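As a next step, we paired sequence with structure tokens, yielding the entry below.
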Amino acid sequence: SNHDDGGRNVGREPQASVGGSDEGPDRMNEEIQQLDREMEEFEATHSRRMAMLDSIVFALELFALVLTACHFGHIWVLHGASFGLVDAILALHINSTVSTIFKKVSERRNLRRISRDLDSKFEDASDLDIKKAKIAGDVCCICLASMTAQ
């Protein structure tokens, strides 16, 4: 008999908390802390996996570019150096591929330098700051994750 009773508890007994009234909030706090720990572990695992995936993608991109440059060089060797139109086009392709390799390596180096500079110039929040932010319900303005100590 699932029908609307108008907000009244007709025919139902009130639910008593198991073990007294103090145990409910404590148990809920423990569950929240457990969920926070699980979420922190998940975020750490996710960050490691993303960093590994980023490194793999970078290595594969470089490998593809090096392979492309080698392919153009191989075609040039097979065709012979006659300084004609085909040689000029192959030289332009090789130049473009090599400059793309240097550009990707430079971007990667700059990204790591910027990350290192940010880590060194801005100090981490103290445990007290994190507790205050957690109580206030604040989230990280960069990643929108809950504020927790690492």
User: Anything to note?
Assistant: The chain is about 70% helix and 0% strand.
